[in-house]
Amino acid sequence: MGPSEHYRQLYEHAVDATLTVKRDGRIADCNPAAVRLLQQARATLLGTRFLGWIARAQRDAATTALARAFAGEVTDCPLTVERDGGAQRPVSMRAIPFLRRSAVEAILIGLRETEVSDERLAAVQLAQFLQALPDQFVLIIGDDARIRYVRGVCGTHGLDEAECVGQDIAVLLDSGDETTQAVEALRRETRLGHAWRGAIWQRHADGTRFLSQLSAAPFRDPRGQQLAGAMVTGRRTSESEQVLREKTPDAAVKPTRGILVVDDDQAIRTALRKCLERAGYEVREGWSGRNALAQITDGKQPDLILTDLKMDHGSGFWLVGQMSRHFPHLLARTVIMTGAATVPVVERLVAETGCDVLRKPFEYGVLLEVLERVSAGPASTRESRLR
Hints:
The chain is of the alpha/beta class.
């Protein structure tokens, strides 16, 4: 490896934002740290005027510093860079003349942030955290759907994170109507100030596609707290989850479904919540039949109910009886969990309640299959209700 290759590696891997600026004041090259600082794709930055990224009040000082550098001096100057949208960051600039045949052809500019903000510390910690979770990634997208911040896609998508900044979120996604509808739903809900959950097919750099479970929340501008886009977290799903999703291809664009999980065991409720939220459900919890009935009566009715049988303060049998009298439309969308070991007991449950029954312990994939079927309509045969 020759000296030029060594210098190139130093340039690309420098911690500080580094840019090459020509005599006409335009950016000829920049490293990934500059992409992260200015939150623009490298292709967007190249050819733009360097002074355009400096706060207006400091452009005269920056112009003087650049002129001295082009005259052959190494120049230091405190400045404030201004990102697209107005967000500012104080930096210390060092401009170094780049000589070719004794003439200054360009200058090398280094920008080091002078304040370690809470935002930057959080970003560093997040990057370290995601290194231990190679199947997860985080994005911040603007209101124009362009990526403003990204971490983790190197592991999940095989993409250069610096090259993703400034690109439309579509650069990460598989093409198709399902994906388009899901992204529209994500943007619509977050613009309204709501959270969104769902599954969207992604595209790896090698051309293969994979399913990611996404959670999105409104992202607010730290300066004025106005809505500025969405923060999106993604988890690459397992092969079994992808197989199940492919069997129900429209599931990725269905509205988030609400499910009420009723069990007097906190640990079981917590485990079920985590599993169901990963599958895109909006989960509410009830710790007894009476508590669940109060939620159904006083609040928003769930799309599905998953209830245990043996509970104090209103058993599952009691809850099912109350629903049959007051909310019969919910009975067909109720799944009962039971530890009953024998088939005859489970058969009797089906006959008495008309509900689908899951025998404990059950697999996560089986639970999702049952809930998908119950969502689509009542089970057609008794056998299909016994799992």
